[in-house]
Amino acid sequence: MKLTTMTQVTLDGVMQGNGAASDDRRNGFERGGWARGKGDDETRRFITQTYQRAEAFLFGRRTYELFAGSWGSIDQMRAHPIGVALNEAPKYVASTTLTAPRWEDTTVLRGDLAAAISELKAKPGGELQVHGSGALARWLLENDLVDEMILIVIPVILGQGARLFPETGPDLALDLIESRVDSKGVTIQVYRPAGRPRYATA
Predict the structure, then answer these.
(1) Which of residues 8 and 16 earns the better pLDDT score?
(2) Domain definitions of the chain by residue range
(3) What one-character-per-residue DSSP string does 157-201 give?
(4) CATH code that applies to domain 2-193
(5) Using one digit for the tens of pLDDT, what is the confidence trace for 32-64?
(6) Longest CA–CA separation in the chain, Å
(7) How many Å apart are CA 98 and CA 124, to the nearest integer?
């Protein structure tokens, strides 16, 4: 399977609290819900179709519990095409503390996470998708486990909040595979990792 991440980010790279004001208030974050209602019908269709082509989903603990309490529990959300895709596919969660996952068809990955994910990727099929899950997405990039990265960039600058890419970290070159901008200024960028960047020499 191809491992694909899909992340909503602001222009200054923040991914924290995109859905609702109450989703994630860690470290005094007060500007949640910045992605709600953004994007046009074409962007929403792209997001839905991305979920629908997933063979399986991989989550970090926090995002898993957020999704389980919404897409996995609320009837109206379960009936949405994204909810149907999430509920029908196998779900994997990277966690050392989760012992009794409440969402059906969930497997908790413990121990050697890199080996477990490499094993999943070796299976035939479509995509193993990661949505949100910032700490996990950063770890996957650091360990060269991401095959494709989708960034949905919302035209807003927050000035606070956890960012997808840390202030210091590994460097990574990217090849742009697809790019589009919708009628509301939301851009979708699809990248494939391409090794390390080249730098100018003195």
Answers:
(1) 8
(2) 2-193
(3) --S-S-BSS-SS-----EEEEEEEE-TTS-EEEEEEE-SSPP---
(4) 3.40.430.10
(5) 777 888 999 999 999 999 999 999 999 999 999
(6) 61
(7) 27
Residue spans of beta strands (DSSP E) within 89-156: 91-94, 106-109, 127-131, 148-154
Measured CA to CA, the distance from residue 102 to residue 46 in angstroms comes to 29
Dig out the tokens for 155 from the structure. Answer: 């035209």
| pTM, two decimal places | 0.92
Average pLDDT, the chain: 91
What proportion of the chain, given as a percentage, has pLDDT over 90? 75
First to last CA, the chain: 42
d(CA 7, CA 151): 5
Residue 39 contacts by C-beta under 8 Å, 6 or more apart in sequence?
A: 47, 152, 154, 182, 184, 186
Residue range 123-177, pLDDT digits in tens: 988 999 999 888 999 999 999 999 999 999 999 998 888 889 988 888 999 999 9
Strands 187-193 and 148-154 come out as antiparallel
Estimate to the nearest angstrom the gap between the alpha carbon of 168 and the chain centroid.
20
Q: Contact, 159 vs 114, CB < 8 A?
A: no
The CA distance from 169 to 149, in Å, is 17
Identify the three-state secondary structure at position 97.
coil
